[in-house]
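User: My collaborator sent over this chain with a note saying "see what the structure looks like." That's all I know about it. Can you take a look?
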Amino acid sequence: MLARVSPEVLRLAALFEEVLQALAEVPLAELVAGRALPEPSAALVEHLRAHRATLAGWLRSPGCAEALCVRLARWLWSRNQYVRLDRAALTAACDRAASELADELAGEPDAKDMSERLVRTGQELQARVAALVRAGGGKTDVVCSEYAVTLQRDALGLGDAPLTAPVLDVGCGRSAGFVRALRAEGVAATGLDREAPEDVALVGDWLTFPFGQDRWGTIVSHQAFSLHFVHQHLAQGPEAFAYARVYMAMLRSLKPGGRLVYVPGLPFVESMLPAKTYRCTKVPLPEAMLTEAVHALERAAGFELAYAAHVERLVRGSVITCSGGDPRRASPPADRGVGPADALAQGAAGGRRTGPGAADRGVGVHERVRPTLRPLRAALGQAAPGRAEHRGGAAPGRGAGDGRGR
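Assistant: Without extra context I'll predict from the sequence alone. Here is the result:
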């Protein structure tokens, strides 16, 4: 969109990027709490004053609000990968801020007046965005990373083995490095991510994406879908139910013999999969990734996490429903009075715990465990000897947990 606008607007966008870069040094919690924004730069003030008419017209256009919303959303996701953003509300907040700034450009404000007006508009936008971030549960920094393709293969327990096509990489990240590597090998592959590159992937939200049925030979997800699932499970919130349903939708979308491959593991769900329909194989993480921090996390959570899960669909006829009102051919698990998807959703939301100490931890366990997801991410990002480090490898892969599209 910005490629078709005037040089004055492009310069304004570049100056806005400088503001975001400066704010990247400030903890997200402080920004959400209302920490004062830095004074606008002289370059920004003078640019607005010098091109008032052109910039006012752009600021009042729908394209401006949408572009600002997209950029702010990406910036917020880079600060906290779990934050849920109401895109309509964020667009409305951006539209209001842009319109207010356009109004401020009326007349001929001097540099001092223009600076004060920018500060006022920025503070009002900050307050509105902070409210959305608080509502979306993203008040602190939880960053994403990009990983080398070889490291992703190691963590997923794939080695150099070929993958059955077509392959879908859920949470492929902004670079979609894993997808590009597969395509370079002649494998039909695509990615899914809220910040996906459209030349090799689909831009979308994994909670609403139509995975289809009997469609994929392999679905992979490295520190993306399952990491968010663990986060929601430990939080014991309602979104864990949505993740359980999407998990089953991904399994239904596999071709017979197809595999869903992900890391970290999801033992609280895998233990409830019907053995006649799915076979789950746990592949331990490479020794170099098994740090004490990871073991401490597992002890705190009460279940195993540090492994890659390979879930294979065995039977074409047995399909699990993931919502009520849509009966399928599969039978409920033995000794259960509820359907498989309902049982999975109940377990995912915290209704069923596994592992030592699960019975006596109480409902507040997620408050102690959630912050310790960071060591697991860090450990999974450590390269084995001879492998490229994340954010520095020759073949960058996806960012962990980048798949949500808001």
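A starting point for your reply to your collaborator: The CA atoms of residues 46 and 237 lie 48 Å apart.
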